[in-house]
Amino acid sequence: MKGVFIAFDQAHKDAVINALNRLNCRGFSFIEQMQGRGSNTGEPHYGTHAWASMNSGIITMVNDNIVENLLATLKEIDESAEMLGLRAFVWNIEQAY
């Protein structure tokens, strides 16, 4: 099992959730408003007058065999509007109940 954390501009919300649905990733936790900025080229998302946009985040636990398709789908979403920003991070889940 893998944990996947997805950070994205709020404009990507529907596309990200639709991707999870298409890949049968049923369980996830959604964070409506997150502040941050990309590590290389991303614009800040602070919700301020100067940097008005905001990020959201989703964390989900998926079976190993779903990860590659999920990352490919998320990459397509990101590349459709690169200035908005979307990143996904994957790690091993040792135990769960």
Summarize the structure.
With 97 residues, this protein is α+β, with helices and mostly antiparallel strands. It has helices spanning 13-22, 67-80, and strands at residues 2-9, 28-34, 55-62, 86-92. The mean pLDDT is 92.
SSE topology:
Blueprint (H helix, E strand, L loop, with lengths): L1 E8 L3 H10 L5 E7 L20 E8 L4 H14 L5 E7 L5
Antiparallel strand pairs: 1-3, 1-4, 2-3
* β-strand amount: 25-35%
Topology, number of strands: 4
- The oligomerization state is single chain
Note the total helix count: 2
Structural class based on helices, strands and sheet pairing: alpha+beta
Low-confidence stretches: none
What is the number of independent domains? 1
CATH topology: Alpha-Beta Plaits
Note the main sheet.
4 strands, antiparallel
Which CATH class applies here?
A: Alpha Beta
Q: If you compute it from the alpha carbons, what radius of gyration comes out, rounded to the nearest whole angstrom?
A: 14 Å
Name the helicity range. 10-25%
- Order of SSEs: EHEEHE
| pLDDT averaged residue by residue | 92
- What separation lies between the terminal Cα atoms? 12 Å
Instruction: Order the strands across the largest sheet as they lie in space.
Output: 2-3-1-4
